[in-house]
Amino acid sequence: MMAEEVSLASTSVKAASDVRRVLVIAYYFPPMGLSGVQRTLKFVKFLPQYGWQPTVLTVDPRGYFAHDDTLLSELDGRDVSIVRTKSAGPGKMFAKKETVKLPSERTRKLLSRVSDTFFIPDNKIGWKRRAVAAALALHKRTPFDLIFATAPPFTDFLIGAELKERLQRPLVFDYRDPWVEYPHKFYPTPFHKLRNIMLERRALKASSFVVTTNRRVKELLIKRYGFLSYNDIEIIPQGFDPDDFKGYHGPQSDGVVPRSNKMRMTYAGVFWEDRVPDYFLYALNEVFLEKPALRGKIEALFIGKFRRENEKLVEKLHLGDAVCVVDYLPHQQCVNNLLASDVLWMIVGDEVGSPGKAYEYIGARKPILGCAPDGFMRQTILEAGGTVTAPKDVAGIKAAIEEFYHQYEKGMLRGPGDEVVDKYNRARLTGRLVKVFESLMAV
User: What 3-state DSSP class applies to 234?
Assistant: First the structure.
């Protein structure tokens, strides 16, 4: 059966007797783009080869910041169904537009804080009623064996908890980010935080098992909720899909930004909160000021939503001849640009974030310059043979750029080896998720 998108009214799926069925609750799903959809998409893509038929319950994808139809096409020919309902909440204001403009960071922060003030746990809570009704109707037609909810948004977990109570099916939570301890969550009053804690506690009590992307999130959950043990939570990291790297055929591949004889350092993604290009740009500027001969020999490529405030800093530092910016690209084209680069750069400002780009960088087998605090992400980059500085360490970033250029000149740039790369293969990581599913079916 081909991967299909169906309305609730027309859904009728018959599963083979030896195939188990899982309901995947995922507000964010292709053709929505950006990094938040990759993990769920790849799980859904590979589940059928392990004998699990996914039905994805999601929303109409209109009114979002980026779209990529090529992501959805990855499910063609696979035993996957996608059921969409209308969205609810503030997002309805943008439903008439397919893609909306990314606001300035100042505006985004303001809107985020307004949202955290008036919506608990998040502004997707209005979707809960529709999602539950849709899931119950689907289950009545062809029962599910298990429920899998991925978050954020954490409304997905509340939907899963209610379905667990009503359907009596195992429920697995996937924490892509922490809930209560999320570093950019705004709590205007103690009540807001207490209410989020109560909702998370109630949801976790309903869950059968928990998956997280990193050990720090696992530690935070165990510390806060005494009823959770070490064995109740499995760490399944972010990863990369080897299929995404098969379409690269050199610098002339689809979507690759033309390049000259310069060392290219590439960043893929969106800047927001403490993930900003400022310190990297300051460091690059200092490289050129102290070593003018390197101007014209190093370039920085930014792929994604580069805001006007970021452009202003490039102009202020007179880096226009060394910085190239392209808008959001289809995922395959983005990967092609990673492979056509010499060094890949990333920044994470907190100890709980698990940027998916880091693992695609590893999959690209390129040298990595990571700006990260102490914690698991720093260790991950070091394990991959990368170089790490503190996020705001301009002098350290400058020294790293110069060292990478020295290696580039001598043809000595090296990326991670097979033993590291193989750990983050998404097909194998999906196999680990299936082991979780199967353990719950055996109970």
Answer: strand
Q: Domain of 63: which CATH number?
A: 3.40.50.2000
Residues 86 and 168 in one domain: yes
Sequence-distant (≥ 6) Cβ neighbours of residue 317 within 8 angstroms: 281, 282, 284, 285
Same domain, 267 and 209: no
CB 68 within 8 A of CB 59: no
What pLDDT is stored for residue 17 in this prediction?
A: 52
Whether the per-residue pLDDT at 8 is higher than 90: the answer is: no
Burial group, residue 210, by CB count within 10 angstroms (0-12, 13-18, 19+): buried
Indicate if 275 and 419 belong to the same structural domain.
Answer: yes
Give the pLDDT mean for 393-422.
Answer: 97
Number of domains in the chain: 2
What is the pLDDT averaged over residues 175-188?
Answer: 94
* Helix/strand/coil (H/E/C) assignment for every residue in 172-227: EEEECCCCCCCCCCCCCCHHHHHHHHHHHHHHHHHCCEEEECCHHHHHHHHHHCCC
pLDDT interval class at 128 (50, 70, 90) = very high
Q: For 33-78, what is each residue's pLDDT tens digit?
A: 677 899 999 999 999 999 999 999 999 977 666 778 889 999 999 9
Does one domain contain both 180 and 279? no
Buried b (16+ CB within 10 A) or exposed e, 127-150: bbebbbebbeebbeeeebbbbbbb
Picking from 155, 31, 9, the residue whose alpha carbon sits closest to that of residue 90 is 155
Q: Are residues 365 and 431 in the same domain?
A: no
Name the residue type at position 140. Answer: K
C-beta separation of 40 from 173 below 8 A? no
Using CA atoms, how far apart are residues 82 and 195, in angstroms rounded to an integer?
Answer: 32
Domain extent, residue 21, equals 4-239+426-441
User: If we measure between CA atoms, which residue out of 237, 199, 239, 235 comes closest to residue 219?
Assistant: 235
CB 83 within 8 A of CB 54: no
DSSP structure string for 315-347:
HHTT-TTTEEEE----HHHHHHHHHT-SEEEEE
Provide φ and ψ at 354, rounded to 5°: -130, 70
**Do residues 417 and 430 both lie within one domain?**
no
- Alpha-carbon distance of 369 to 343, in angstroms, equals 7
What is the bridge-based pairing of β-strands 387-389 and 368-371?
parallel
175 φ/ψ angles, rounded to the nearest 5 degrees: -85, 105
pLDDT attached to residue 92: 58
Looking at the fold, whether 436 and 412 belong to one and the same domain comes out as: no
Do 280 and 358 share a domain, yes or no?
yes
